[in-house]
Amino acid sequence: MKKRIAELLSSQWTAEKMATDPGELAEYVLYEVDEERHVATITFNRPDKLNALPVAGLEVVGDLVREAEYDNRVKVIVFRGAGPCFGTGADGDELGYYIGYREGNSKQARRRPAQHQRMLPDRDMVMGAFTDVVANCLKATICQVHGYCYGGHMQIALAADIVIASPDATFTHPAFRYLGCAPQDMYQWIENLGVKKMKEIMLTMRPLDADEGERAGLVNKVVPLDDLEQWVHDYAQAIAMMPLDGIMMGKANMQVMANARGKGIGEAMTWIGHGWATNLQLEDGDYNFLKERRDKGLAKALKDRDAAVAPFFRLGGRLKGKTTE
What is the pTM of this model? Predict the structure, then answer.
């Protein structure tokens, strides 16, 4: 049986901090195929954690996309989130540990991981395990977004073909706030938002709302939350009318053009740049995410950081209390 990338990395460096149990991961990422509609649905199912997934769970997403890509019954892959939102990326309790950071409670444990420890997980997890898989998928991909679309889930939305969102949807990557201007899929950000809007989001670290996302070009359509699932269903149905060969040839042609526009260089810069972002030289008074998480716990650390900026720039407190099952 194939050993998961995340499991291999955690067994080498930080096994005690990584959730890699296959049964648990299967509960967090659900998969079903509607053969009649030619649609595979991947559901993020950890609503009590705002669908934040263990790092290994993001790898599961990539595996399921590959499975759907090879399934000739499937023409369209839909990503959705159970509960209050689409998803908030990788579980913050694990971040840093997968590249070799430890608790920081001793001189030895405070040593930064070597670059050789960062390079493989950054290449194979940050980009290769799920984002690159979605971006290069030859089946049509749709994100059904409500509530938060942050972190790794934002990377999926950037890489997908179509994003349908409810008005309460908000989009960003918290890495900008906790690690500085980290180049997480910089190519995809610029292609989806344009240079000026990308710089604004990167530098101010604020979330983008659904209407603004639609104006920028990230979101294809904003629809009422109660109608969101039906709109996604209708988009999938319209796409599924096309022959499978037509869909896959069209997606392949788009990949050729994307590479002509710099996609290959952009993908390499994603994991190379992530090594820079996780090796910051912090000055006195700079926010230190790993230290704050260690001393205060994840929830309190993130809440305090959010409270330090004006409401317009805050990441939390934006859910309206509505959920989807």
Answer: 0.87
